[in-house]
Amino acid sequence: MIIFKDAITDSKDELLSDSFDFKEVDGVVYEADCAMIDIGAVSVDTGANASAEEADEGLEDSAQKVNNIVYSFRLQSTSFDKTSYGAYLKGYMKKVLAHLKAKGAPESEIDTFKKGAAAFSKKVLGSFKDWEFYTGESMDVDGMVVLLNYREDGVTPYVVVWKHGLEEMKV
After folding, report:
1. What's the superkingdom here (predicted)?
2. Which domains does the chain have, with CATH numbers?
3. Is the pTM of this model over 0.70?
């Protein structure tokens, strides 16, 4: 299995893994479909019949519906207004560019990142109200902000992570 960690936060935050179905989009981001799952509900059947007095006293079901990727990687919800997200994005892109140069990425990869990141950023800012924002578990302000949106059906959630801001770790 491959786990993708945030390259900017010195790989403190795990953000995605190949156990989720993801695809590369525009050469700069990965999109992974999510699912809403139930957690916390435990059904215990002892095989015994409830007594007449206790029949009404069923246990409360404590199940919660959560997004499987948000839950699995312990992503933390955060919020931005359009101006502050634009400022964050500008700074983050500079950090990713510096990271690519530091690791000796080929010039063609750096050019792909620059062009693709600008176009995808414009797309996100153009539909800003449709996005939700998550930080990694460490909540490091320098790290990647994971984006969450819904497919055209309005029901299927998906997350977006910046491809060039990730480090792969084989487990």
Report:
1. Eukaryota
2. 2-37+69-170 (2.170.150.10)
3. yes
